[in-house]
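Fold this: GAF domain-containing protein
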Amino acid sequence: MPASTSDPPGGGEPAVLPRERRVTAALIDLADVLVADFDPAEFLYRVTEHCMNLLDISDAGVMLAPAGAPLQLVAASSERMRAVELFELDARTGPCLTAYHEGTAIDHTPLDASPVRWPEFSAHAFWAGYRCVHATPIRLREDTIGVLNLFRRTPEVLGEADRHLSKALADTTAISLVQQASLDHHRTVNRQLQRALDSRSAIEQAKGFLASHNGTDPGTAFEQLRAHARRHRIRLVDLSRDVVAGTVTLPPPDSTGEQPGKSGPKKQDPRNNGP
């Protein structure tokens, strides 16, 4: 993503915004997740773009670990970096995995030293043109949910200011993802509550419809609905809507007063008993 710019008065070349303003704009952008059409994949690619725009790096990537699942690569700024990251995940060894499991930031440089930590990963990354890796855990309090991976083509470690900013970007990513998950949960609960209310309304309408057409009380009508739904293994709310729509017709309950769904001998009128 190109650096943010502003148009100077009178035209001419756009001026690059000061780094502080670009940092503020990036953090605000990553915090803006409370929208109905939130796209987590696009959001994570924006994280890598902000890293590329603000930090002295060559490539950026994000790995996340869904609950109970292994670490997975979800965004990378280039196909070259993606190949290195996938190799690391497949080999199950490297600075990014170690940063995730230990919950601490890791600098890995130079990649061509001997002896070197994670030799297989180091050789693969060096062959791809990288000379330094900085991995920052994506943490929420005590929980590590992923790792932000920053690759450089120069052998120097990431500067102190960039290290602090990378942690701020990782923390903002974690908070935003959790906020979105909470919002999704809230929306799911609200949808379930609304469905329950809609279902109850349909059932009440069917009760009133049956009571009116069959000359029974609402309680008897409800038991009739339940008995029919159970007998035919259909949802009570679906049956209720069909009854109101007229696509399903339920006969009046037994005139002897037998409750729907119950069975047993019919009571005889004592006046009709034989001698």
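The domain at 16-180 is CATH 3.30.450.40 (Beta-Lactamase). Strands lie at 5-6, 15-16, 59-64, 72-76, 106-108, 132-140, 143-152.
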